[in-house]
Amino acid sequence: MLRPAVLLFALLMSAPAVYRYVTDEVDITQVLIRFLIAVPIAALLLAGLRFVTAGYGKTDEESPDAETAAEPAVKPAAKPAAESAVKPAAEPAAGATKPAPGGTPDPESAEQPS
Predict the structure, then answer these.
(1) What is the mean pLDDT of the chain?
(2) Residue 1: its pLDDT value, please?
(3) Domain interval for residue 48
């Protein structure tokens, strides 16, 4: 649906053609073609104007989210990246030898069967 402002703006843009029709300089078909070309151009121009001016004049009291904007949301503290990246190692099975820092099993830490 077209807004009345679009049609009025299109009529204003095609006003020189309407004036020429009144003075018998052009045919009615040329006037109507110029008006039909002016309608989508007027719609785009007014839509751009509405888009640019949509945010002007709004304050926090007028917005529907004013209650939530007044109270800041409390976010939980994020875990440091080092803590979240480290996973605990699984417990070694009974009787297994513990590896030494060099990567080889430590024979002293192994449980001896009795």
Answers:
(1) 77
(2) 73
(3) 4-53
Counting the structural domains of the chain, the total is 1
Residue 99 falls inside a structural domain: no
Is 26 within the bounds of a domain?
Answer: yes
**Residue type at position 43:** A
Check: CB of residue 39 under 8 Å from CB of residue 10. yes
Nearest to 12 by CA among 40, 46, 35, 43: 35
Long-range contacts of residues 40-46, Cβ cutoff 8 Å, at least 24 apart:
41/10, 41/13, 42/6, 42/7, 42/9, 42/10, 42/13, 43/2, 43/3, 43/6, 45/9, 46/3, 46/5, 46/6, 46/9
**Is residue 15 in some structural domain?**
yes
Of 86 and 28, which is predicted with more confidence? Answer: 28
16, part of any domain: yes
Tell if the pTM clears 0.70, that is, is over it. no
pLDDT tens profile 19-60 = 999 999 999 999 999 999 999 999 999 999 999 999 888 876
